[in-house]
Amino acid sequence: MENSGLRGVIAAAATPLTADFEPDRHRFVALCRRLLETGCDGLNICGTTGEATSFTVAQRMAIMNAAAATLPLERLMVGTGAASVGDAIALTKHAAELGFAGALIIPPFYYKGIEDEGMVRLIGRLVLATAARPVPLYLYNFPALSGVAYTPALVERLRKEFGSRIAGLKDSSGDLDYSAKIVAISPELRVFPSNEAVLLKARAGAFAGCISASANVNSKFCALAFHSGDSGALETATKIRALVSRKALIASVKAVLAHMLQDPAFEALLPPLTPLSDADRQQLITEVAPLLG
Question: What is the pTM of this model?
Answer without folding.
Answer: 0.96
